[in-house]
Amino acid sequence: MKENVLKIVTQRMLKGSKFSPMREPILPVRNKIGIYLHIPFCKVPCPYCPYNRYPFREELKKPYIDAIKKEIDIYKERLDSTKISSLYIGGGTPTIRVRELVEAVEYLKQCFDVNEICVEANPDDLSGESLEALLDSDIKKLSIGVQSFDDDVLKNIGRLSHEGKTAFDAVKRALNKGFDTINVDMMFALPGQTFTHLKRDLETLANLEVPQVTIYPLLLFPYVRMAKDVKAGKTKLPPAKEEKTMYDEIITFLTSHNYEPASVWSFSRKGVEKYGSVEREEYIGIGAGAMSDTVLGVYSNTFAVDEYINTLNKGVLPIAFGHESSKKESMVKWFNMRLYELGFRKEDFSNHFGCTVEETLGSLIRIFRSLKLITIDDDSIKVPKSAFYSIHSITKTFLLTYIAKICEEGMKTPWPKEFEI
Asked: Pairing state of beta strands 141-147 and 181-188?
């Protein structure tokens, strides 16, 4: 019941955001930001993946990297003395061609002083040589997309790029290479996945002593192939009650095996530095379909790889559409993202927006407090363990309402017209 109420409240908060054609960036207001680099190519696109990805084409390899360099050049001029706190590389499959990935990273390092570099990786790409190449390029944080170590589960979700043993060996190999942090991406509430499958995956992770685990539910954006198969009755998902039971089991198991929650879906071994993909407060997106998020608004590059390359060959940023945010809207989004991280210091809100969280988001805080989703003291706002699943539900709704609409419109046409959440 509470989750249904939260879903409605979250949808109402997001409803009405208007996106329109945009050609100029909404630059960050802070002098320290993140950069997100998108590599959209995959060997075998997964039927559940909602993000911008294309089957790999050898002839696009060099033109795409060259276009990335041109986009970096433009932002180097625009951002001037802005410091880059982190570079996060996602996809797609960033490690599909490690040599070209390293080339793009090295070029960006020449243009910006980058504090840390994180990359998503497919197990099938992580040979000893590839891991060494990543480390040699100062990529010290690695997230390996395993999803499950069980071959039947992988087959059920169409994750055909690797088998369970390939994933196990890749994780073990990476653990012996000296990365600062290694995260393993897993999934739950999958078609055909039983509690036995889930428990076996969790035991494997604990036995490997993986520094961090991110385990998230299957999120079916309405336009992906698996969502259509579910609608047609070809694929069956576990009921919501089973999803909650699985989530509770994940928390119970990992917290009893030396892990502590780092966010709603991430768990780090005690004393290990956290790895995160979505927590950056302001960032610029580079690459086809890459989104940028700043205090003043959000905007996206064109999703079409050919259009992305052609536009940059003309010396123009490939920005396709965006949305200018009101200060209140930015505050609400910041608040919700910090709750995904299980809380924040009030001082951080004040430093970010120049006012206190109580005076600007008082009504929202009262709602969350009355629903027992947060606890408040003089210094901080935190999410109690009893509310983790509720924040899980809010995060799902945000992704399936807000991000799904943006991605859907971006995939329909290279240069979308006006649309509304």
From this structure: parallel
pLDDT, one tens digit per residue, over 169-211 is 999 999 999 999 999 999 999 999 999 999 999 999 999 999 9
CA atoms within 13 A on the CB side of 212: 26
Cα gap 43→158, rounded to integer Å? 13
Name the percent of the chain in helix, strand, coil, to the closest 5: 45, 20, 35
User: Is the CB of residue 139 less than 8 Å from the CB of residue 94?
Assistant: no
Higher pLDDT, 37 or 272: 37
pLDDT above 70 (res 1): no
Through-space distance between the first and last CA atoms of the chain, rounded to whole angstroms: 24
Region 19-269: CATH code:
3.20.20.70
Provide the residue ranges of all domains of the chain, joining segments of one domain with +. Answer: 19-269
Dist CA 194 CA 151 (whole Å)? 13
Q: 327-382, pLDDT tens digit by residue?
A: 888 898 899 999 999 999 999 999 888 999 999 999 999 989 999 999 999 999 99
- C-alpha 71/C-alpha 58 separation (Å) is 21
3 burial type by CB count under 10 A (0-12 exposed, 13-18 middle, 19+ buried): middle
Range of 11-25, 232-246, 308-322 with top mean pLDDT: 308-322
**Calpha distance 262→264 (Å, rounded):** 7
Name the residue among 2, 1, 15, 11 with its Cα closest to residue 396: 11
Enter the tokens of residue 22: 């945009």
Q: Rounded CA gap, 24 and 45, in Å?
A: 31
| Among the listed residues 63, 64, 44, 62, the one whose alpha carbon sits nearest the alpha carbon of residue 54 | 44
Instruction: Give the H/E segment covering residue 32.
Output: strand 32-39
Rounded to two decimals, the pTM is: 0.95
Long-range contacts of 390-395 (CB under 8 A, 24+ apart): 390/2, 390/3, 390/6, 391/264, 391/339, 391/340, 391/342, 392/217, 392/247, 392/264, 392/265, 393/3, 393/6, 393/7, 394/6, 394/7, 394/10, 394/336, 394/339, 395/264, 395/265, 395/340
State yes or no: pLDDT of 251 exceeds 90. Answer: yes
Q: CA-based Rg of the chain, rounded to a whole angstrom?
A: 21
The angle that helices 362-370 and 327-340 make with each other, rounded to 10 degrees, is: 30
